[in-house]
Amino acid sequence: MFSIIIATHDRPLLLKRTLESLIAQTCQDFKVIIVSDTASYLPPYLELTQLDGRFDYVIRRSGAPGPAASRNLGLALADGEYLLFLDDDDTFRPGHLAALKARLLQDRPALLFCDFQVLNEDRTVMPPTPLSGQSISIADVSSDSVYVRNRIPNSCVAYRRDVLAGVRNDAELILYEDWDFLLAAMQGRQLVHFASDGVVIHKSQATAPENMRRGNSRDDQIVNVMLQLYRKHPAPNLATRQARQALLASAGIVLDLSHF
Q1: How far, in Å, are 44, 48, 90, 170, 229 from residue 176 at the CA level?
Q2: Inside any domain, residue 199
Q3: Is 131 a domain residue?
Q4: Which of 67, 138, 229, 258 is most buried by its number of CB atoms within 10 A?
């Protein structure tokens, strides 16, 4: 049913926790593809053996580090009916895949996205200490709104494999590659919302070195990359184009987006 692609970079203890959340799933109809862009630590053998041979662990030895190229390699190996991306510091609640499978089997939508939980934690110790958490509903997200800004975490989207023919992550983007990938997959298709918060997005302080969140130091490039994506994925209608203009204007940026 599922191919779960995990791109990882030098976070072995967090990756172990991610894999433990998959081992604990009540639905085991999945295969895991883990792609590491470094060979600086041993694979998590204990957790992998518990996946009963349903995994590929690949060390990517060419190209610059980064999740886009790793996810593309995972896509090349995936053969499940639905593909999921799971960040190496995030987890699924034990019943997540079972609930997701039951919903997907109803009408097999092309693109399904779900709600999630945010868990703030202290990563200066291992295992991390939970600090606070909340459930986040993104039921108000529409296909048009994703053309303006993306509020859907990468780990919350289920892609039917056939809609990803020719769709790949852009390794040249310095951030927002998951947004670009979603927009490319959406061409001519509608997003379907699933009211379930079985995905857990783990966060630590953005300035903490333990966090290792790519993009924290590239805030100065957010507008440039947004404009790049606006050009690459033109607004599907006038209302969306105006919403893009309004978002930029709220940040004090006035541009003519009539051709975006």
Answers
A1: 29, 30, 18, 9, 9
A2: yes
A3: yes
A4: 67
- Structural contact between residues 114 and 156, judged by C-beta atoms closer than 8 angstroms: yes
Range of the domain at 135: 2-213
Structural domain contains residue 169:
yes
258: confidence class by pLDDT, cuts 50, 70, 90: confident
Question: Is the pTM value of this prediction over 0.90?
Answer: yes
- Residue 215: per-residue pLDDT: 42
Residue 138 covered by a domain = yes
Instruction: Using alpha carbons, select from 86, 76, 73, 69 the residue that is nearest to residue 30.
Output: 86
CATH number at residue 49: 3.90.550.10
pLDDT tens digit string along 237-248?
999 999 999 999
